[in-house]
């Protein structure tokens, strides 16, 4: 659930792509639909969900400052919230902050990261390094006497590599094409990460995994095309959380949660922190957007993750969460519902065609041959006698 480091801008690009890649596809406007959908009212569950706040991926100084404020710790306790701490290093200082959270009885999830130049996210090409990272994490945990309620395994694209290739379109295309054809690479990664999850569970931890928004569409279509292209691996632990960051999808907002959320075990909403890139429209969620996402997400899932705690603290969201009415209704405008429905459907169609491109091409070729053959037969039949 992390989004940090020098590749952050490319992470925003890919995350936006994961939600709205289909928005680049021309589709019929709402007026062309036979029966455009009406506005939808989504009722909150009436009970507070289990909230979990991701944090601490910006360095140890920021982590220490975040939890040095007693009001932040007090608010987390009142919310009975979990904290997902990015394990960006195995330093005594990080261990000290986690130990303080343990002492305060705040449930802590360990966000396992890849502590190399390719970090922080694991991807298909890092599978062989992941077991060593867990072994080092377990040693550090024992040395510092730390307690975790779960370990989070975040497998996302290599944003650093994609960002470096962005200025070389030719290399980017050939890299993506090579990845899309390498099914063995994905099979190896799937085996290693599945074994790692079993190893983590054998050490007594629950395992959380996280899925980018295209994951449910891929599963429905029984394809792994985008996983192969971007290096994500579809593995699941005890709980799988779907990351739906509507700060990257403001044209549809909470309507995208309405489309993708029904089958999710848990949902992660965001982003609440960080300066918006100039002219991008990807700024952090305000309270109205954030609370709307929470209510819609909690309609489908009891466990709701938030990226991130730092943004919630800086925007003053924690006190407002303490008094939030979880039974309130959210009205999603008809235009947003229509836009989400159309573009998710268009994305699914494009993904299906791309996944079956050889078969589509073969069918098109056969159809062309058939049409040419019929044209030639008709031409001979009606050719005037000399």
Provide a concise account of the structure shown:
This protein has 386 residues and is of the alpha/beta class. It is 49% helix and 13% strand. The chain has 2 domains: 10-25 and 37-355, TIM Barrel (Alpha-Beta Barrel), CATH 3.20.20; 359-386.
Give a description of the structure.
The chain is an alpha/beta fold and 386 residues long. The chain has two domains: 10-25 and 37-355, TIM Barrel (Alpha-Beta Barrel), CATH 3.20.20; 359-386. The protein contains 16 helices and ten strands. The strands form two sheets. Strands 2-3-4-5-6-7-8-9 form an eight-stranded parallel β-barrel, surrounded by five helices. Strands 1-10 form a two-stranded antiparallel sheet. Helix 1 packs across helix 6 (159-165). The N and C termini lie far apart (78 Å).
Beta-strand segment tally = 10
Number of helices: 16
Query: What's the main sheet like?
Result: 8 strands, parallel, barrel
What integer is the average pLDDT? Answer: 83
Spatial extent as radius of gyration: 24 Å
Indicate the percent of residues in helices. Answer: 40-55%
Query: What is the CATH topology descriptor of the largest domain?
Result: TIM Barrel
What is the element string, with H for helices and E for strands? HEEHHEHEHEHHHEHHEHEHEHHEHH
- Structural class, from secondary structure content? alpha/beta
What distance separates the N and C termini?
78 Å
Shape: globular
Which sequence of strands runs across the widest sheet?
A: 2-3-4-5-6-7-8-9
Number of domains: 2
Q: Report the uncertain regions.
A: 4-17, 20-34
The first-level CATH class name of the largest domain: Alpha Beta
The portion of residues forming beta strands comes to 5-15%
Q: If classified by CATH, what would the architecture of the largest domain be? A: Alpha-Beta Barrel
């Amino acid at each position: 659930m992390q989004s940090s480091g020098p590749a952050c801008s490319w992470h925003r690009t890919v995350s936006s792509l994961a939600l709205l890649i289909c928005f680049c596809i021309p589709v019929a406007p709402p007026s062309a639909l036979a029966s455009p959908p009406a506005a939808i009212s989504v009722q909150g569950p009436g009970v507070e969900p289990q909230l979990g706040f991701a944090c601490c991926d910006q360095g140890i100084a920021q982590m220490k400052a975040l939890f040095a404020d007693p009001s932040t710790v007090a608010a987390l306790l009142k919310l009975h919230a979990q904290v997902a701490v990015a394990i960006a290093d195995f330093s005594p200082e990080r261990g000290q902050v986690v130990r303080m959270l343990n002492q305060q009885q705040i449930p802590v999830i360990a966000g396992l990261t890849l502590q190399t130049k390719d970090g922080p996210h694991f991807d298909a090409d890092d599978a062989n390094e992941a077991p060593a990272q867990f072994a080092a994490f377990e040693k550090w945990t024992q040395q510092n006497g730390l307690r975790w309620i779960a370990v989070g395994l975040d497998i996302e694209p290599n944003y650093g590599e994609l960002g470096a290739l962005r200025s070389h379109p030719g290399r980017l295309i050939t890299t993506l094409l090579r990845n899309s054809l390498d099914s063995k690479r994905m099979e190896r990664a799937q085996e290693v990460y599945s074994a790692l999850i079993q190893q983590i569970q054998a050490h007594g931890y629950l395992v959380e995994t996280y899925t980018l928004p295209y994951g449910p569409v891929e599963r429905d279509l029984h394809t792994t095309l985008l996983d192969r292209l971007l290096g994500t691996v579809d593995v699941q632990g005890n709980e799988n959380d779907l990351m739906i960051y509507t700060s990257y999808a403001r044209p549809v907002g909470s309507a995208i949660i309405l489309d993708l959320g029904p089958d999710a075990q848990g949902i992660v909403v965001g982003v609440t922190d960080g300066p918006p890139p100039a002219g991008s429209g990807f700024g952090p969620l305000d309270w109205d957007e954030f609370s709307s996402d929470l209510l819609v997400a909690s309609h489908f899932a009891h466990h709701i993750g938030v990226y991130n705690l730092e943004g919630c603290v800086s925007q003053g969201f924690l006190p407002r969460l303490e008094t939030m009415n979880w039974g309130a209704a959210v009205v999603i405008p008809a235009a947003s519902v229509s836009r989400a429905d159309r573009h998710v459907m268009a994305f699914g169609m494009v993904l299906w065609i791309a996944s079956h491109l050889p078969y589509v091409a073969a069918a098109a070729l056969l159809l062309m041959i058939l049409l040419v053959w019929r044209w030639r037969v008709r031409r001979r039949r009606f050719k005037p006698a000399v």
